[in-house]
Amino acid sequence: MKRSLITFVYSCISIVFLFTSCASDVDFDQVNTLKLEPVFIANLAYFEVPAPDFVDNGQEQSLVFDVPAVDVFSDKFFRDNLKKASIFTEMENTINRAYEVELLFLDKDNTTVYSANLNVPAYSGTVNKVNRTDDFENVQLDLLKRTTKIAFILRMSPGQPLTETSSGKLILRSGVTAYLVVE
């Protein structure tokens, strides 16, 4: 009897707490106003060109280029939610020649939709680093979204000739910071 009385009292107390506990109405419509703003940082391009690569069969080549595909903007979700992008490019030179670096953003028809230039001075004992940041919003962002390839063109300025034993290298690093808004 004592045990059933204790069980009865605990049951009554539990029921009282259950029906008098704090609770608020749940507003499921809040999901309609949810707004996420993620930021993604990714490498876009990296390459290293040693000085001897500018020499072919003993002849100096003053122009080197590469055209990698860029599939960042092929994703529909990414294109639809991208609100701003920044592209950071850094060029490091340890070759005793100056260079001009041209970046051409190409669409699917190989038409240039945007271009950027970097002038990199010749190496003179200390590492030369040249940086550039390009911000894309509104109309320029629409152009960037059409990009399928980026052409990297290196033009060597006149100077002391390079040989197969020349020292130094060019290093290009490029990254993108993408600002998305998902509603």
Overview of the structural elements:
There is one protein chain. With 183 residues, this protein is of the alpha+beta class. It has one domain (33-180): Jelly Rolls, CATH 2.60.120. The chain is built from three helices and ten strands. The strands form three sheets. Strands 1-10-5-8 form a four-stranded antiparallel beta sheet. Strand 2 and strand 3 form a beta hairpin. The protein is elongated and about 105 Å long. The model has no long low-confidence stretch (mean pLDDT 86).
Q: Within the CATH hierarchy, at the fold level, what is the topology?
A: Jelly Rolls
Order of helices and strands: HEEEEHEEEEHEE
The parts where pLDDT drops under 50 for at least 5 residues are none
Mean pLDDT: 86
* Number of self-contained structural domains: 1
Rg, Å, rounded: 30 Å
**Category from helices, strands and their pairing:** alpha+beta
| Secondary-structure arrangement, i.e. CATH architecture | Sandwich
State the helicity in percent bands.
Answer: 10-25%
Signal peptide: 1-23
Keywords: Signal
Protein name: DUF1735 domain-containing protein
